[in-house]
Amino acid sequence: IIDINTATREDLEALPGIGEVLAARIITYRERTGGFSDLSQLKKTYGISDSVFAVISQYLTAAPAAIPKLDLNTATVTELQMRTGIPDAVARSIVLYRKQYGPFLSVAGLKKIVFLTDSLYLQVARHVKVN
């Protein structure tokens, strides 16, 4: 079993269906997003088909504890999108809210954004912190 958040290029290339190019893409995606919070995020890597994911997922694990949380008051729209998987419009709204009303005092402050559903709140909350 390989931890997708710490796997080297060589570790990834040893998986069935993963060559040099896909291994590099996985590592690039991991670095851009700060890591994988769960294995299903791996499917967002360009070139990972459902069939390849089905084959390699049995050899992988994702240790989310190794992923540092984003600072809600400094995270960019892109960082919020990539790390949490929320839609662009929601990420933009969070950043805009922060600009208009000042920094968040707690993660629970996200609940003040009217259209942020409970499920979206939970999706964001597990990836962010307030310093």
Distinctive features:
131 residues, two-stranded parallel sheet, mainly alpha
Topology:
Layout: E1 2-3, H1 9-13, H2 20-33, H3 50-56, E2 60-61, E3 70-71, H4 77-84, H5 88-101, H6 118-125, E4 128-129
Parallel strand pairs: 1-2, 3-4
Described by the principal axes of the CA atoms, the overall outline is elongated
Largest sheet: 2 strands, parallel
Strand order of the largest sheet: 1-2
Average pLDDT works out at 91
Q: Beta-strand percentage?
A: 5-15%
Succession of helices and strands: EHHHEEHHHE
The first-to-last residue Cα distance is 34 Å
Instruction: Count helical runs.
Output: 6
Q: How many beta-strand runs? A: 4
Give the radius of gyration: 16 Å
Broad structural category: mainly alpha
Spans of at least 5 consecutive residues whose pLDDT stays below 50 are none
Helicity level: 40-55%
Short characterization:
The chain is mainly alpha-helical.
What report would you give on this structure?
- The protein is mainly alpha-helical.
- The protein is built from 6 helices and 4 strands; from the N terminus they run E-H-H-H-E-E-H-H-H-E.
- The strands form 2 sheets. The chain has a two-stranded parallel sheet with strand order 1-2.
- Helix 4 crosses helix 5.
- The longest helix has 14 residues.
- The chain is elongated, with a radius of gyration of 16 Å.
